[in-house]
Amino acid sequence: MTAAGSGSFQDGRIASKRLVMLVALLLVSCCLGHGFGDEDHVEVEGISSSCMESERRALLAIKSDMYDPDNWFSSWTGKDCCGWRGVACDNTTGHVTKLDLHYPYTYDEWDIPDIMETMGGSKVNPSLQELKQLKYLDLSMNNFSHAPVPKMIASLVHLEYLNLSNAMFDGPIPPQFENLSNLHYLDLHGWYDDLHVDDLDWLSRIPSLKYLDMRYLNLSKATNWFYVINFIPELEVLRLSDTDLPYVPSPLPPFNLTAIATLDLSWNSNITSSMLRWFSNATSLEYLDLSDCGNLTIEPLQVALASLINLKELDLSFNSLEGEIREILNNVSSRGLKHLDLSCNQLSGDIPPGSLGDLEYLDLSGNQLMSSYIYLLLWGISQTCDI
């Protein structure tokens, strides 16, 4: 009787221990599944990651301040924000890494004024700064009603891609953008914006920048523009059209933009002859737009064109260039030149035979060329010729 009772007691203790161990294992499993200190990360068996609840709430707050006439945000429902339109997450952590809220329809740049007139206003919700792991942010082609560029964007230090173009922002570009040292792509251009930069020093803190577009910004006080940009060694695309660039005195620093492939300085009147000679070092250049720069002369152009062996597109229109057209064409060293615009200059003379190479587009309108060479142009250009 005593032995039987003792055995029953021992069995009960063993069962109790097993129950405690089972509960402990369940607790450990729960912690491993959800992570320590990461209670809003919902892990689902068979799925590597899903949406952070705190970031889902941040996205919904952002949505609440965005103009949405066509139900662009209709997919923004449910728990997993990683599947929402314009949103992408890291496959491992579940953090939101991409937010693309740009105007979703195809448009031509000339359509922008009409689009802006009909577009309702939006606001950048402060919850944006909660998306701390963002690498890609596109707010382009929205109407932010002439608000200042939000400084909080500078807190998104993991950004590699930032597009704020044609977003109806006004005022200065925050110098705090220097914190975005991981940026590869920065687009700030805008027709309707009234943006300006008085000092470009912050750009020197973004050494890995490959694409920079500041068209139509006011850079008239950024006297250091040339020196700052020259020391962004990985820059491949630079667009500074119609920015009122300040005059750069000689001597110029050694050329450092060894990767530059696209350069647009059009509609700026302070592009000097010494700059043109400086461009001759840009042997990787494929696209060059110096239209409507006002002070260009043929001699430094000859020096530059003789060195730009990879050039595919060249626009020198609206410069009142004087002289023989052969002085330009005979110095084009690139055999791959496809697009040449020399319209609205004061060029004269004839076209040297064989100088047109493999051109597909040629515009010589608004010059003083000999009409007897029209047949040569039409014969030599395969696609478009405007004389």
UniProtKB/TrEMBL annotation:
Keyword Cell inner membrane among UniProt keywords: no
GO CC annotation: membrane
Subcellular location, record wording: Membrane
Keyword Membrane: yes
Domain Leucine-rich repeat-containing N-terminal plant-type: 53-90
Name this polypeptide is given: Leucine-rich repeat-containing N-terminal plant-type domain-containing protein
SUPFAM superfamilies from the UniProt entry: L domain-like (SSF52058)
Topology of the protein relative to the lipid bilayer: Single-pass type I membrane protein
InterPro entries linked: Leu-rich_rpt (IPR001611), LRR_dom_sf (IPR032675), LRR_N_plant-typ (IPR013210), RLP23-like (IPR046956)
Signal peptide span: 1-33
Organism in which the protein naturally occurs: Musa balbisiana (Banana)
Keywords assigned by UniProt, alphabetized: Glycoprotein, Leucine-rich repeat, Membrane, Repeat, Signal, Transmembrane, Transmembrane helix
Pfam families documented for this protein: LRR_1, LRR_8, LRRNT_2
